[in-house]
Each structure stands twice: as C-alpha cells, then as structure tokens.
Design brief:
Blueprint (H helix, E strand, L loop, with lengths): L2 H52 L12
Length: about 70
C-alpha cells in the first residue's frame, strides 16, 4: 500500500468535507436572515392590524374631492 497515495486521498477527503461544511454554513446563515426578515415583516403587519382594530374608522375612506 502506497502511504503517499493514502495521505493524498485522506487530505482530499478532509478538504471536501471542509468545503461542504462551509457551503452548509452559508446556506444556514442565509436561511436565518430570511427567517428574521419574515419575522420582522409579520410583526409590523400585526402592529398595523392591531391599530386598525383599535381605531377601525381611521384610514378606511379617502376623500378625493377637489
């Protein structure tokens, strides 16, 4: 068994594993950012819905007479 060949194969496997982990971490970071953005948008929508529930007469009609 060639020790040099075995060493090269082992090193290539380690590099491939590190690359896979790096790509996975990037994907997880992007997903986390998107989840935080969606959470912020939903929170803002809930605040607006609560404001409309408290004062339903505001913003329901627009007077367009000149």
């Amino acid at each position: 068994m060639d020790i040099a060949l075995l060493s090269i194969a082992l090193h290539q496997g380690q590099v491939q594993q590190q690359a896979s982990l790096s790509v996975m971490k990037k994907a997880m970071d992007q997903a986390k950012g998107k989840a935080e953005f969606i959470h912020q948008m939903m929170s803002a929508a809930n605040v607006k819905a609560l404001e409309r529930a408290v004062q339903p007469h505001l913003g329901g009609m627009i007077d367009v007479k000149a």
